[in-house]
Amino acid sequence: MENRTYGYARVSTREQNTDRQIEALIRFGVPEQSIIVDKASGKDTEREGYQYLKRQILRHGDTLVIKELDRLSRNKADIKRELENFKEMGVRVKILDLPTTLTDFPPEQLWVQDMINSILIEVLGAIAENERNKIRTRQREGIEAAKKKNVRFGRPPKTLPENWREVMAAVKRGEMRPVDAMRELGLSRSHYYRLYNSMQFRNKTSNGDYMAK
What we know:
The chain is of the alpha/beta class. The protein has two domains: about 5-135, Rossmann fold, CATH 3.40.50.1390; about 155-213. The protein has helices at about 20-30, 50-55, 75-90, 110-150, 165-170, 180-185, 190-200, and strands at about 5-10, 35-40, 65, 90-95. Strands 2-1-3-4 form a four-stranded parallel beta sheet, with helices on both faces. α5 runs antiparallel to α6. The longest helix has about 40 residues, at about 110-150. The protein is elongated, with a radius of gyration of 27 Å. The termini are far apart.
């Protein structure tokens, strides 16, 4: 069976794009249709595209190309384990930002390549993990600072339609059915009941009236 070359690209969120990585992989010679993409955190390796690539696509003798080492993971232990797994599978990993992984050493010098790569991977894996820890620390510090300024997190408060009080009063008097109220308010069923339940919760200590105060 012919040995094949695949590429893998990853960004942490759906808002980010993988263009830079994909362009680099294509320039290196990876067919665009052979590039697997994930938009998921690098905190671990449980990503749909990556796991499919490992378990269903890559075979002994294939080559996997990635732009940077931390595309595999931002955890040093995960990186080392994944590289060891690929070695056991007989899959060569080429990292564009690590030129030594791109060089084809003669068989008698493969041990030199392995040694150099191991050192570089150890160092860069530690850097990637340290960067992730710094990001988490900055996020935690930012949240704490925001809390001190009374910044609220989570979903924004639900905004009531201007005619909410009048329509809900009509519903309470039995003059209007909830389905008609939804139409009058211009709300979907789920949105209507989210607001309804929210107002009931807000006023549960009052006289039981579910209208906004």
